[in-house]
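S2.1 Query sequence (HTH cro/C1-type domain-containing protein)
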Amino acid sequence: MTTSDPSPVQRAAEAFVAEFARWRVERGMSKKQLAAAMGFDASYVSHVEAGRHRPTEDFARRAEAILQSGGSVWQRYKEYDELRATARSRVGVPGRDPPVPDQWLPPGTGLVVERETARLSYVDGKYRCTVRRALYNAGTEPITRYLVRISVDRYPDDPARSNRHHHDHPMSLDELSLVASCAGEPMEWRTKTDRDTLKELWLLFENAQGRFPLYPGQRTTIAYSWHIGIDKWGNFFERAIRLPTRHLTVEVEFPARMRPVVWGVQTSLSAEEVPLRTPITQELSEDGRAVFSWHTEAATLHDYYRLEWRFRGSRPEGAVEDADDWPDPPFAPPTARQLSA
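Output structure tokens follow.
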């Protein structure tokens, strides 16, 4: 693809190829091994890496799914695709290829989250968490239950203090007031783990009126919500990617009078936390609510995406009395690593 004076599109294609090759080597995979994992002939992968064939959306998605680059490979493709679409539109030809009808999944994939929207809202001294997940069963067995994990850490920068606090003020199942549904059907739930700071609950694809398992090849949407007092919840909202996730939206919502400041980080079990790759957006609703949203189409399996915040305005109802919990300086530094919820 190279010329003596490459165009922006050519340079973007070369950047994609370089990133693709870098991650293939990083994962210790030969072209033949990677081609087999992606479901392609080895010659095709070799041609793309050599620049003899241009990358496609399907190729980039499969590469990201196998290489798990944290979105780097997919990001390079999107940059190339955007430049190519712009260049083609200038000469009156279709800007992009037809969309991929069904996103390819690696062999052996089970349950897939096609879209997750998770929102944490502060209302009257409590936080309310609402999660909606569009699920697809790409496996070979019916899905009859779904695991939900809820954990609290009031003082993530001080584990000893946090442990004492939650020992004296344990999170209870009753206060969570968990409700769940699947495509409008109420879901029953069963406790798996019940600790002071951690609840793991199985959402069952059944209720008193019958069962509704998610069979292979089928899709459905589940939704669940729960509440927790501000005296038990730290200033963070984190999503752990435990299943392949195509679209992820994380939102936090506060009364605007609190003057919230929100930032985000990404981390994993093997890497230090880094800022989110894309910015958080903010909207102000007509009823005086500040809504902060972040979205990605490149969520990496086993990574964590976290929104953190502090308040510069009036203290929330139910706030713990310690003055240092609500710092007044408008430019207080971000807190250190906080654990998942």
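The chain has a mean pLDDT of 86. The two ends are 46 Å apart (CA to CA).
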